[in-house]
Write a structure and sequence with these properties.
alpha/beta; 8 strands; globular
């Protein structure tokens, strides 16, 4: 009922025109290591891909992401085919702030496209606060209530933090349940610095699991 224009080039009457779809299909995927584990990403997070991802995540434009989700779903299926029988798929959960803003988890869309309907998510927990040094009688008690100054709870998203702040806000923030002695494929939407995905790998290993592959819709080329 409402007019649309291609988000890639502005051509009328198509959410994503044929030329931009072809350009998207021609873009190469990316492979990198995160925490010593191979990460396969369907695309590099740049140009047209970045525009599509932002329209999808920030504006709920599910009408433009079939190319992104199709290729990523293929990578998920390939990862499972290469993994030992019985491997689990775990989602890297969005931040609480991002989930509230969007109202949906983009990774769920990808996994449904891959035929994975019941993939569990890692659990987010408050980041432990570093307490005062031994013998110190200053600073909050170890069991003090969560405050806005605690790393990861200051209301800022990852994009608004420095690299050091990202690490401080992420390490210890994820927990994996039911993965002891299991092989795991981790799936996320966009991997930039790799801090969040590395934390997901750490959480699985801490729970006794083995991460055999990571998959993402897009990653920054490093």
């Amino acid at each position: 009922m409402l007019p649309v224009a291609c988000v890639g080039c502005g051509a009328p009457d198509r959410a994503l025109c044929r030329a931009c779809r072809c350009a998207l299909d021609a873009l190469p995927g990316r492979t990198r290591l995160v925490a010593g584990v191979r990460l396969d990403a369907a695309h590099e997070y740049d140009g047209l891909v970045r525009t599509l991802v932002l329209e999808w995540k920030l504006r709920g434009r599910v009408d433009i992401v079939s190319g992104l989700t199709r290729r990523t779903a293929d990578l998920v299926r390939a990862a499972l085919a290469a993994a030992p029988v019985g491997a689990l798929v775990l989602r890297v959960p969005p931040s609480s702030r991002g989930h509230r803003r969007r109202g949906f988890d983009p990774v769920v869309t990808v996994l449904r496209r891959a035929g994975v309907r019941r993939a569990r998510a890692l659990r987010r927990v408050p980041v432990p606060q570093a307490g005062p040094g031994p013998g110190s009688d200053s600073g909050p008690a170890p069991d003090a209530g969560l405050g806005p100054a605690r790393a990861g709870t200051d209301g800022r998203g990852q994009k608004e933090r420095t690299a050091v702040e990202r690490v401080a806000a992420t390490v210890g923030s994820l927990v994996a349940d039911g993965v002891a002695d299991r092989d795991v494929v981790l799936v996320d939407d966009v991997v930039t610095t790799g801090v969040t995905m590395a934390e997901a790998v750490r959480a699985v290993r801490a729970a006794g699991g083995r991460v055999v592959r990571c998959v993402a819709v897009a990653t920054v080329d490093v």
